[in-house]
Amino acid sequence: MKRTQVSVAALLLASQLVGGCATTASTTTTPTTAVGNATTEAVSQLGAAAAVVQEAPVAPASAAVPAAPPFQVVAEQFADLRVLRYQVPGFETLEPQQKELLYYLYEAALSGREIIYDQNYRHNLRVLRTIQAVWTANEQRRTASTNPRELDQATKFATYAKRVWFSNGIHHHYSTRKMLPECTPAYFRELIFAVDAKQLPLEPSESVTKFLGAMTTILFDPAVAPKRVNQEAGKDLVKTSAMNFYQGVSQTEVEAYYKRKINTQDPQPISYGLNSRLVKDKQGQLQERKWMTDGLYDKALSQVVFWLNKAVEVAENPEQKLALQKLVKFYQTGDLKVWDEYNIAWVHDTKSRTDVVNGFIEVYGDPLGYRASYESVVSFKDLEATKRIQAIGDEAQWFEDNSPIKPEHKKQNVVGITAKVITAVVEAGDAAPATPIGINLPNATWIRKEHGSKSVNLGNIVDAYGAADAGGMLDEFAYDEAEMQRARQFAGMAGKLHTDMHEVIGHASGQINKGVGTPKETLKSYASALEEARADLVALYYLPDAKLVQLGVVPAGGELAKAEYDNYIRNGLMTQLVRLQPGETVEEAHMRNRQMVAKWAFEKGQKDKVVEKVTRDGKTYFRVNDYEKLRGLFGQLLRELQRITSEGDYAAGKALIETYGVKVDPVLHKEVLARYAKLNIAPYAGFIQPKLVPVLTNGRITDVKVEYPTDFAQQMLEYGRKYRLLPNYN
User: Model confidence at 2, in pLDDT bands (50, 70, 90)?
Assistant: First the structure.
């Protein structure tokens, strides 16, 4: 997929971004459409804040106005997670119509949030509602009990509940391994019987005792649904994965089904399977149950459509209006050709200040790469910050022409690449609480080739990560003072540029040979890791290039590129291992990508000691000795990865990932974990979302205010009440 994910460990390592994945900056069109007549009924639907917000009285000129306290980015830390907060700078300067539009898109985003829980695991919604039902009883014990045992158990259950909220289900959001409660089944039983049975998500005619038995097995048995997404070679990836995209089918059956359906000669193929669950009907025939209004997830998607239709009424311009109308039609019909029409319209909407990603977007949650998870990112353009990323996007053809890939794999006419830095307003579904830092869409290769793509850097999210920097990683894992100083001076900007180029010229580069299927068909379960590696390598190859100095986006001297090379090697070979438990292999696509690239370069440059493994005082370090040769190695691997992608060479792609991207040195892993543990830094982070509150005058929205909640659990409970739209089982 085309998304940049961020490793908090790597961020803290050098206060920078790692990984990678999302218009030409246009003059913002002054809205001319009249503000929509949003009725009180519409605004208050589902409990939306419909009360008029009263403005605070203005203090007399002579009165001393106390300075506002600094914004607290870090909210809390538990397990391996930190919960942060981000601001929405510039929102108050938007036109009233733009604010109203963003409010409707905000409601649409959150109306679909329950879908990701059900997609991740078929029992997740019952788990979610069970947590909500017993939360108050558990909090009373956690805050008021004087019994040490009860206090300990209550604290452990609260931590587990927050982990489930953070991961949108009972499987870890990154490793996808099942998270087990640290409280005992006996304590869980006490909580269940401490609440009114009417509050529990019981099925028809189900007793509390039967419900408890089922939930205890789901939560506490490590053998039940141990992995949400299994990528272990040689296994049936469908049957051994707990995700809820398939029911009663095997990997072989799925692959055969799509082999019959897909025409590899079609120059404009739809994204087969993107918006459906594949099941067997009563006759044993395979059937796709589409996610659409009047279909699977009807009630949630109907509410998404309700708010999208309100957004259509106040769209900034005809292009944005058309895109939103196409999105509504897609949800209503489930037609993947309409999905393509929407994506084309969305790509061509380059003048709007406001924007939204909403839909079934990324396929990381499907081990076979067909089905996509629900997500939404609502945003508006940061006009000043966009200048940097725009400079790169404007030269996309130059970067393509000068790439080290084979001439026949280059695009002769790079079209429609638009790039911008955005200010996120709210994120939902698969994009929250853990968030991407960059996005490049659409994912359909033919649309990107014929119509272009949008690349975005989530500027305020990146800033929040930087403000939350806890330090310590550089001191522990960087080889020497020179490396640390270089990182402190240049790594922040290097990371941003890496993300920009990964999205803007990385994912948009190269082309697939005529008659070769899409990567998910040819490269199968390795497609995502290979694609992320390809985009990373484009960025790595060009970071030292004089072209970037010429464009004015990097200073001369090459130190910025060196800082990113240091970090990439250090992270890929060593520090990202803090995300794994002892004995685990690498399965997540971005981690496989980074380890594969770093290990391959380390091995191929070993003779010349391009990258050297050094042991000092019992600690392991990786030192880059020759940055120019390392760039050459990155270029060689980029050339090969593009060949693999263009030709659909499954065997070669598999060999690269399995040889370099999967296996972990257990001795080095143990050392890294021990060194990291001393720093007391959580390796993952996500966000409490801002809250939009409409200001109403005579039933119409005249303004929208931004509030910044501080309590993660309370936000999750509020969402659970307000956006409870799906049955326990779908």
Answer: low
The CA distance from 661 to 589, in Å, is 9
DSSP string spanning 481-496? HHHHHHHHHHHHHHHH
Phi (first) and psi of residue 72, to 5 degrees: -90, 110
* Angle, CA 253 vertex, CA 247 and CA 259 arms, to 5°: 125
Reported as type and span, the H/E element at residue 396 is helix 396-401
pLDDT at 62 over 80: no
161 vs 33 pLDDT, higher one: 161
Nearest of 416, 435, 413 to residue 424 by alpha carbon: 435
Q: What is the pLDDT of residue 44?
A: 40
Tokens of 245: 């995209």
How many C-beta atoms surround the C-beta of residue 547 within 10 A? 15
Q: Is 666 exposed, middle or buried (0-12, 13-18, 19+ CB in 10 A)?
A: exposed
User: What would the mean pLDDT of 164-179 be, rounded to a whole number?
Assistant: 97
488 - beta bridge partners? none
- Provide the edge-to-edge strand list for the sheet that holds 81-85: 74-78, 81-85, 684-688
CA angle centred on 126, ends 364 and 157, rounded to 5°: 90
Instruction: Give the whole-angstrom CA distance, residue 105 versus residue 324.
Output: 10
88 and 423 Cβ atoms separated by less than 8 Å = yes
3-state secondary structure of 381: strand
Q: Model confidence over 115-153: pLDDT tens digits?
A: 999 999 999 999 999 999 999 999 999 999 899 999 999
Per residue in 369-416, pLDDT (tens digit) is 999 999 999 999 999 989 989 999 999 999 999 999 999 999 999 987
- Looking at the predicted structure, is the pLDDT value of residue 199 above 60? yes
Give the integer Cα–Cα distance in Å for 179 and 170: 6
Specify the amino acid at residue 87. Q
| Angstrom distance (rounded) from CA 526 to CA 589 | 8
- Alpha-carbon distance of 570 to 487, in angstroms, equals 12
Query: Look-up: residue for tokens 């600690």?
Result: 619
Q: Give the residue among 321, 344, 325 at the shortest CA–CA distance from 333.
A: 325
CB 695 within 8 A of CB 705: yes
Closest CA to 529 of 595, 485, 471: 595
Name the region of 25 (left: φ>0; alpha: ψ -120 to 50; beta: rest).
Answer: beta
What DSSP character marks residue 253?
A: H
Q: How high is the pLDDT of residue 525? A: 94
CA proximity to 583, closest of 668, 666, 675: 666
Q: In what order do the strands lie in the sheet with 276-280?
A: 246-247, 276-280, 286-290
Give residue-wise pLDDT tens across range 633-673: 999 999 999 999 999 999 999 999 999 999 999 999 999 99
Tell me if the bond preceding 442 is cis, omega within 30° of 0. Answer: yes
The larger pLDDT score, comparing residue 6 to residue 82, is at 82
The structure tokens listed for 512 are: 């697939």
Strand 619-624 relative to strand 611-616, pairing: antiparallel
- Find how far residue 636's CA is from the centre of its chain: 29
* Number of other residues whose CB lies within 10 A of the CB of residue 397: 16
**Cβ proximity of 682 and 162 under 8 Å:** no
